[in-house]
Amino acid sequence: MSEHNTAQSSDPQPVVGILGAGRAGTAFARTLLAAGVGVDICSTRPPKALQHHLTIYAPGANPVRPEEIAVRTRQQGPGMVILAIPQEELDEVEPEWIGDSTLVDATNTWTYAGEREPLPGWLDAAVTEQLPSSMAIAGHFSPARTVKALNHIAHSEFDDAAGRDLPMTQRRALAVATDDDQARGLVMGLLVRMGFDPVSLGPLAAGRVMEPDGPLFNRPLQREDLLPYAR
User: Fold this and answer.
1) What pLDDT does residue 3 have?
2) InterPro entries in the record, alphabetically (predicted)?
3) pLDDT for the residue numbered 174
4) Is position 190 within any domain?
């Protein structure tokens, strides 16, 4: 088990799990920690090997084994795991690690020189049929409640874009799409805490506009820019 002290106080700190400790995962971790949210994070490296990397890129994040990624967030709330690994590695993630937690799909399908990155068969089939990748991810990771979010902002901009001290009208807007209203509320609340203005686009299928070839991808958006795409 992780060496982190899991003893709970009468008012335990909320914790979010992050699957993936690359540039996106550590950017999310830094912003969550700055907002007073604990972070459990994992990668292909064992926790002890990951610790030095986190000391540099996400100080304060707690390295855990992949099978532990949802343990503390389910115990202390909000029961949320952020998926921040390349889609080509999704078959390395066991659905039971996440269980019925809220799964924030921050992944994207990338094309290089006209060729799509290698994908697991179940995901490649969905993308070939021009379905939003999150819909396939939701089916694969059932019974997790999948929410598309955090994928249409560059990780290199994430720290500076989080405006916790700004009024909502001046914050950068981030889109959210899901078929589960409870999960929608949890993710939107977390985005507010992190310093963003969340805008619901509606069902999970609406997240198609958030993907790399969509109109919302990697643009500094305000609420009024997102509202025309809400269903």
Assistant:
1) 45
2) NAD(P)-bd_dom_sf (IPR036291), P5C_Rdtase_cat_N (IPR028939), STEAP_metalloreductase (IPR051267)
3) 98
4) yes
CATH number (domain holding residue 167): 3.40.50.720
- The Cα–Cα gap between 205 and 227 comes to 16
Query: Which pTM value belongs to this model?
Result: 0.94
The mean pLDDT value of the chain amounts to 94
How do beta strands 173-178 and 145-148 pair? antiparallel
Q: How many domains does the chain have?
A: 1
Q: How far apart (Å, rounded) are the C-alpha atoms in residues 127 and 125?
A: 6
Domain that holds residue 139: 15-229
CA atoms of 67 and 75, how far apart (whole Å): 15
Which pLDDT tens digit goes with each residue over 81-110? Answer: 999 999 999 999 999 999 999 999 999 999
What is the Cα–Cα distance from 95 to 168, expressed in whole angstroms? 35
**What would the pLDDT profile of 132-156 be if each residue is shown by its tens digit?**
999 999 999 999 999 999 999 999 9
The token pair that represents 185 in the structure block: 């509320």
* Mean pLDDT, range 23-42, rounded to an integer: 98
Nearest to 180 by CA among 103, 87, 74: 103
- Report in angstroms the alpha-carbon separations of 112 from 17, 59, 171: 30, 33, 32
Beta bridge partners of 145: 102
Q: Is the pLDDT assigned to residue 8 strictly greater than 80?
A: no
Domain membership of residue 169 (yes or no) is yes
Cα–Cα distance measured from residue 139 to residue 124, given in angstroms and rounded to the nearest whole number = 13
Tokens 């994070």 — which residue? Answer: 41
What is the distance between the alpha carbons of residues 85 and 136, in angstroms, rounded to a whole number?
16
